[in-house]
Every structure is written in structure tokens, then in C-alpha cells.
Amino acid sequence: MEKFYWAPTREDRIGVCKGIFRTDKIKDEDIVTLVDQFPGQSIDFYGALRVRVYDDEVRKFVEGLGVEKISKRLVNSREGPPVFEQPEMTLEKLMEYGNMLVMEQENVCFSTESV
């Protein structure tokens, strides 16, 4: 089987990011800014940014309920599954998480180089 290697262009990244963030009310110009701020990143990077924002909502839910009560709330609960509001996604928040992810990548690269 032949492998297909895709090296997305800037325009490819912008198009894919528009799809990733289509339900989040991110302006097209903000997506362009985001892609231009992190030009060498894989497509997965932009999906990870979106997930981080949703992770915040789950973290708030757990903190509000308490770790000790989480299993009773989720397993066979009469309340049904938790419902989360769609989080507000802003360019500022995405840039903050993007910079954090880049720092994590650098830490991983640095730690594997020193082994």
C-alpha cells in the first residue's frame, strides 16, 4: 500500500480550521490570525486548542460538584447525563492555549534530547 503524505499549505490550514471552529462563532479573520501565529503546527494542534476550551467546562463541572461525588452524578444518575453550555471561544483564549501548547512541545523536545 502506498502512503500519502500531506503537507498542508497555509490556505489548507485556514480551511481546515474554519471547519474545526465552525460551530464556535470564531471570525474568519481570527482563524487567519491563529494560523499565522502558529504556522508550523500540524492540523491536530488547532483541534487541541478547541478541546482545551471544552476541557475547562468539564473541569468547572467537576470542581463545582466535587471529585468525591462525580461517580454518583455520572453513573446511573436519575438526573441524566450532564449538559454543558457551549463555551465562549475567543481569539485571546485560543492564543493563550496555543502558546501553552507550544511551551509543552518545547518541554517535551527538550526532555527527550537530554535522555
Give me the count of strands. 0
Q: What name does the CATH topology carry?
A: Helicase, Ruva Protein, domain 3
Number of helices: 5
Q: What overall form do the CA principal axes indicate?
A: elongated
Low-confidence parts, pLDDT < 50 over ≥5 residues?
Answer: none
Largest sheet: none
Based on secondary structure, the structural category is mainly alpha
Q: Tell me what portion of residues adopts beta-strand conformation.
A: under 5%
Number of individual domains: 1
Rounded to the nearest angstrom, the distance between the terminal CA atoms is: 35 Å
CATH architecture: Orthogonal Bundle
Order of SSEs: HHHHH
Fraction of residues in helix: 55-70%
Instruction: Calculate the mean pLDDT score and round it.
Output: 90
**Rg from Cα:** 18 Å
The top level CATH class name? Mainly Alpha
Helix-strand blueprint:
Blueprint: H1 10-20, H2 28-37, H3 43-65, H4 70-74, H5 91-113
Helix pairs in contact: 1-2, 1-3, 3-5
Keywords: ATP-binding, Chloroplast, Nucleotide-binding, Plastid, Transit peptide
Pfam families: RuBisCO_activase_AAA_helical
Function: Activation of RuBisCO (ribulose-1,5-bisphosphate carboxylase/oxygenase; EC 4.1.1.39) involves the ATP-dependent carboxylation of the epsilon-amino group of lysine leading to a carbamate structure.
What does this structure look like?
By secondary structure, the chain is an all-alpha fold. It has one domain (10-113): Helicase, Ruva Protein, domain 3 (Orthogonal Bundle), CATH 1.10.8.1070. It has five helices and no strands. The longest helix is centred in the middle third of the chain and has 23 residues, at 43-65. The radius of gyration is 18 Å and the shape is elongated.
